[in-house]
Amino acid sequence: MSDFDVLFLTKYGRKGASSRYRLLQYFPYFEEYGIHCSCKPLFSNEYLESLYATGERSIEAVINSYIRRIRDILNAQKYDVIVIEKELFPYIPAIFERLLSALNIPYIVDYDDAIFHNYDQSDRPIIRRLLGKKIDIVMREAEIVVVGNEYLASRAQQAGASQIKIIPTVIDLDRYPHVPPNENGTFTIGWIGSPTTANYVEQIAPALREVCNENDARVVLVGSGEVELPGVPHEVKTWSEETEIKNIVEFDVGIMPLEETPWERGKCGFKLIQYMGCGKPVVATPVGVNAEIAEDGHNGLHATTNNEWVTALDRLYKNRELAKTMGNRGRQRVEEQYSLTTVVPTWADILNKFSK
C-alpha cells in the first residue's frame, strides 16, 4: 500500500469535541495505514475558550481565521485528498467548495450535526434565501459524504451526494475504564457537554430537584459553565481532555435531555456513548439516534416529560442492581458498535480510494 497525504480542514483543534472525536483521534491509526495526516483547524483553541467563557465571537479572530483558511486552501493541491469538517467557511456561500471541485481537488465532507438547519431554518430571511441550500451544494460537490446518523444521510441523499457513508462517533475504549455505578451511597446524576448545550439540563431542573430532594442524590455537570438549577444540589466541573473520562467514571447515571426539533434529530448521541463506555446506565430523550443508542429498558431508559425523568432516575436510584446491569449492557454495545478500533478500517478504506 503506497503512502499518501491527506489534509484535514477541521473546525477546531483538540479542544473541540466534534473535531477531536470525529477526525483527530484517528490520526495515529491512519499513519499505520500509510496515510499521512495534516490538520489545519479553522478556529484556534484560544478562540474556542474565549467563546465558551464570554459567549461572544471575536470578529477580528474570525477574520484572521478565514484568512488563514484561504491560505490553507491555496496549498491544498499538494495533497491527495481533503477531508472537510462540515464546511470550509461558516455563513459564507459554498464558493470555495465549488472551487476545489473546479480545480479537480477531491474532498470528503463529514457531518455529526444538522448544520444545514443553521441556514434553511434560520430566523433571518436573508440567511434562508442566500444559504438555505449551501450545505446541499457542499454535499453534492463532495466525492464522499460521511455522516454520523440516518437523519444526516437522508439529507445528503436529498442533496444528490454521489457517495454516502454512515460512521457513528466512536470512542477509544482503551481509555475508558469499565466502572459500574455505586451499589449504595450518594447517587450521582452526571452530564457532560459545553455551555452551548447546557440549556437542555436546565429544562429538566424540576425533575432533578424532585429526585435529589427525595433521595440521596446530586447532579454533576462537566463543561456546562454557569447554569440555573434552582433547588438542585449540583457541582459544575471545568472540562478538560485530561479529566473528562475521570469525571464520567464518577457518575452513577449519565443523562442526555434534548428538545424535539429538526436540529436535535441530527445529533449523534455522543454523550451516551461516553457514559456507556464507562459502564454507566443512561437516561435520554428518545430523539433521533438517542432512541437507538439508549434502548429503553435494556441499557438505559427514555424520558421526555418531567414525570418520566423523575420516574426513570428514581428507578435507577432505588434499584442499583438494575443500574449495574444496564451499565454492563451499555458497555457491551459500545464494544460492538461504537469502538474506535471497529471503525478505523472503514475510514481507512474510504481514504485509500484516493491513493495514487
Overview of this structure, please?
The chain has 356 residues and is an alpha/beta fold. The chain has 2 domains: 4-170 and 339-353, Rossmann fold, CATH 3.40.50.2000; 173-338, Glycogen Phosphorylase B (Rossmann fold). The chain contains 18 helices and 12 strands. The chain has a 6-stranded parallel beta sheet with strand order 2-1-3-4-5-6, sandwiched between helices. One of its GO terms (molecular function) is glycosyltransferase activity.
Query: How many individual helices?
Result: 18
> CATH homologous superfamily of the largest domain, by name?
Glycogen Phosphorylase B
- Tertiary shape: globular
Give the total of beta strands: 12
Query: Roughly what fraction of the amino acids lie in strands?
Result: 15-25%
Question: Which spans have pLDDT < 50 for at least 5 consecutive residues?
Answer: none
Second rung of CATH, namely the architecture of the largest domain: 3-Layer(aba) Sandwich
The total tally of domains equals 2
User: Can you tell me the CATH topology of the largest domain?
Assistant: Rossmann fold
Radius of gyration: 21 Å
Question: Distance between termini?
Answer: 10 Å
Mean pLDDT: 95
Content-based structural category: alpha/beta
Protein name: Glycosyltransferase involved in cell wall bisynthesis
Pfam families: Glyco_trans_1_4 (PF13692)
GO molecular function, one term: glycosyltransferase activity
Keywords: Glycosyltransferase, Transferase
